[in-house]
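To make this tangible, we now present a fold written out as tokens:
***
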Amino acid sequence: MLRSQHRVYDGSGEVARTQDVWGAEGISGRVKFLPLAWAGMPKTSFRKNSDSPPFLDGNGRVCRLMSHAMGLQAGIGASGLWSISRGLARGLETPDEYKRMMSLADMKRQDGRGSLSLRALVDFTNWFLKLSIDQVDFMTSLFERPHLKKRLESYVKLKELKPESMYILEAVLSNGEIPRGDAVRMTGHKERSARTILSKLTDDGILSSDTPKGPVSLRFDLDSSRILFPKLFTDFTLGT
């Protein structure tokens, strides 16, 4: 049962039909429904009913969250390493593409039944899929090892960490994680100085482990992401 501020939906009507059409059982593993879900959503009660939207700023957020969840369930979400929301915010060429494409739902009758338009649906689907591919390509480029290594070098300089820190970071980048003892030996310093270098990296947050003595691995927080993943959250490049 779905409750809103003014109504209680008992599972009948548009809400139930929307769940039947776009519910998890009907879309599991089927990538083609990602853009079609967007095409269908504007005509559902979530767009038309003023008292059922769960967010104050409209239902675009609902569609973005749903698209992200559908991508994960379909097996193309890469554990959250890419998001369609970033693509929708930027478009392929200009940020206003998203609103322009969504406005197609308000067009007058074209070549379909009622207010539907097959041409607009095809255009939107092609645009959505190109947008998804663009975001996958973007994230792939950020994780290319030679480029990420250079940005790690910039990070070490900007954070004023010891140059020997790169021996550890490069090893972690290549292997995923390394034992703390190996990290200490990689610096070429005596144990006390080497442990200080490792401690600086863990205190900084760029390295961490699940347990106090466990192997260390790279961790990307908002601060480090601004340098290591330029243009991920903003179109201004911080670092090289």
